[in-house]
Amino acid sequence: MSSTSTGLPNLDPWLAYTVRIAAVTHEIDDVSTYHLKFTDQAVADTFSFQPGQFNMLYLPGVGEAAISISSDPAKHAMLDHTVRIAGNVTRTLANLEVGATFGLRGPFGSAWPVDACCDRDVIIVTGGIGLAPLRPAIYELLNRASEFGQLTLLYGARESAGLLYTGEFDEWRSRGLDIHTTVDRASGGWTGNVGVVPQLLDRLPLNDPQNTTVLCCGPEVMMWYTARSALGRGIPQERVYVSLERNMNCAIGLCGHCQFGPTFVCKDGPVVRYDCVADFLRVEGF
Amino acid sequence: MSQASITEQLATLNFTQDLPESVRDALAKIASERTLAPGDVACREGQSTKELFLIVSGHVGLDMFVPGRGQVRILTLRSGEVLSWSAIVGNHGATATGTALDKTHVIVFHDDDLTRLCQTNHHVGYLVMRELAKAISRRLVSTRLQLLDLFATEKA
Amino acid sequence: MTTEYFLPKAALQSLIDCLHGDGFTVVGPTVEQSAIIYDEIESVDALPRGWTDRQEAAKYRLERRDDDSLFGFVVGPHSWKKYLFPPLTTLSSAQQSESGWQMQTPEADARKLAFLGVRACELAAIGIQDRVFTGGPYVDPVYNARRKNAFIIAVNCTQSASTCFCRSMNTGPRCSSGFDLALTELPDGFVIEVGSDAGTELLGRLATESVTAEQLEAAEQARQQAIDQQTKQLNTDSIRDLLLGNLDHPRWAEVGAICLGCTNCTMVCPTCFCSSVEDVADLSGENVERQRHWDSCFNLSFSYMSHGTARNTIAHRYRQWLTHKLASWHDQFDSSGCVGCGRCITWCPVGIDLTEEVATIRGNEAFCDLGTENEE
Known about the structure:
The complex is a heterotrimer of chains A (about 290), B (about 160) and C (about 375).
Chain A: E1 17-28, E2 31-38, H1 41-46, E3 54-59, E4 63-68, E5 79-84, H2 88-94, E6 101-108, E7 121-127, H3 135-143, E8 151-157, H4 169-174, E9 177-183, E10 193-194, H5 197-203, E11 212-217, H6 220-232, E12 240-243, E13 259-260, E14 263-264, E15 271-273, H7 274-281
Parallel strand pairs in A: 7-8, 7-11, 8-9, 9-10, 11-12
Antiparallel strand pairs in A: 1-2, 1-6, 2-5, 3-4, 3-6, 12-15, 13-14
Chain B: H1 3-12, H2 21-30, E1 31-36, E2 41-43, E3 51-57, E4 60-66, E5 70-77, E6 82-83, H3 86-89, E7 97-100, E8 104-110, H4 111-120, H5 122-148
Antiparallel strand pairs in B: 1-8, 2-7, 3-6, 3-8, 4-5, 4-7
Chain C: E1 4-8, H1 12-21, E2 24-32, E3 35-40, E4 51-56, E5 59-64, H2 81-84, E6 88-97, E7 100-104, E8 112-118, H3 120-134, H4 141-149, E9 151-155, E10 181-186, E11 189-194, H5 197-203, E12 209-210, H6 213-229, H7 239-244, H8 250-258, H9 264-268, E13 275-281, E14 287-294, E15 304-305, E16 308-309, H10 314-333, H11 343-346, H12 354-362
Parallel strand pairs in C: 2-8, 8-9, 9-10
Antiparallel strand pairs in C: 1-11, 1-12, 2-3, 4-5, 6-7, 6-14, 10-11, 13-14, 15-16
């Protein structure tokens, strides 16, 4: 019952904190990362999040959008959100300049089960902007790399121009992440792999499937086939995690919008165990 | 290159690992090994192909020619995948060009030998064709996923 | 065993007066636009004296009673959720200043509400919304502020409508908990039970009489009448698995073809809690309020996402409503989301009856109205 159990510094879950845009990194077409700072130092000091959680970004007069946090949970100076222009809020955000303020509520939702991955191999399977909610998990896994087995990233996009954070890949590789990229369509001199992401999982050599965890974020069809591939490779379904997307309006399980069967995606998700939602993923219009 | 080495490799490859040992032995007897250098063409779109390849290591790019766009990469194949199935099931006319992208080790079956083995031993024939059908089915699902263009309207 | 008292009918006004004196706004049933609704009342004269309601699928009519009962009806289109979970609320405000946007929580609503005439099914509905709005990790401050101040005077039903099925849902018709005071109406007064210390305190200030055995017997008979009149049933055996295991049942398409998607069922439902939050700005754009309004899973936009709408057809949305209400609600809140009040049946313009939908999916269409003799 108490609000302290939610991890929110605020007792009122509807009240947004003020954040200021400290910097903007243009990532790819229509996608930028906003580096945010709380204007209230007390909030900055107490705000913490887990990989996979999201915030509601609130542009007064326009509305709110649920955006995953994409920065390193161990670094508190700046809170990053990688945002693709997709609606009114994100379009308005894209027009804001460095120094502009707006509101932020959060952090909300469930997290990638990083601790449960200890002593196991971890395969991150994602596509396009789905890498953004997984980037905090990658940072945390690499920060604590000695606690885990082999760490692998299988990452796909429509075209090579849709691959995010490629500038960081060399560093990630040097810290122990095995990265495989693929594109659906080869273009612009792409010499890397061509084919869909689940195919990368089909062919990935596995040391110990029973002790391998899959973290997956992408379009539902892609997650479904990734999970099928993982299960086909002998990875237990309770070690496959997916991040769901639904219309999140309140972010605190009170408005009903984001329901997916029994799951309130905003507070029970977005990260859920695959076997908890598998029955509903292919039901049309559910 | 020995038949024993081929038998060992067949036991580890996705395409053949689930086959009974006796079937793998029968296949090893008609197989040979080859190493492709980067740029070597294993099969060429539109041309007759009489060899079926199992990729042991390395990568092969599959390209189709599109007027005005040139060679368009359709798929990248890697260890355990089958290449140039047109040699067995497609009137011998390759539907794509397969080019080694790096040093690529393959096991090669000649159409004549493989077809003869399958026709004289229907048990082997059934199992080989079943594996081929599974491989084609996986390739078809992947192609459908590509067609769906899932990242065209991806989430923000 | 709770102690019961008798309050003569003429003394009911003193109950309202005491509540007013304690700073309560008293809300109770009253007749407006040919329906019994809930509104603020000043005196017993506002109560629907001598009126009753006749209800069936898609039909609600007020009729004259042959007595002067004040609570001789069942439930109307309103429920108490409009007071605890207001149809329109301001959740926060934002002001643009020199130093950027500043967000604020509005003043808490300190108004104390007293509900007069809460039925057993409605007590259950309030209990369900308590779990929704205050029982999880996040507490809704608006609901919580109103709820903790509320004084609840329940009234036992002495009749059932053809749409009532509270017995199937184990929510009524007898009021058993969740009230401060509970009344059973007799021709000359009320048998009163006390459910809380606040109830005891208030009752101490009223001119109650000790209750007689005859009055207790008459109250029991009046309440029994509501049980005897109730014929509609909903078979809730394994209902969660039944519905979630039949997501592809052809019935969804059939009911989807009839349903208008009008949202009436969700608006009259005393437990439906779906809402949307939107920004309302002044002309300068520098003063903005975040306003929450009731929404419905029957609205197409409700499941909108940037790359498509999750539930595109009315059949999808009816299935969402019914499977949430009767099935996944159990996973979320450890109970059904339905209290058997029958409002969704009465106020559906095309007369869709959820008990019939469930019976059809169960493959037993005759079950929903077998009469009480087949129960238990």
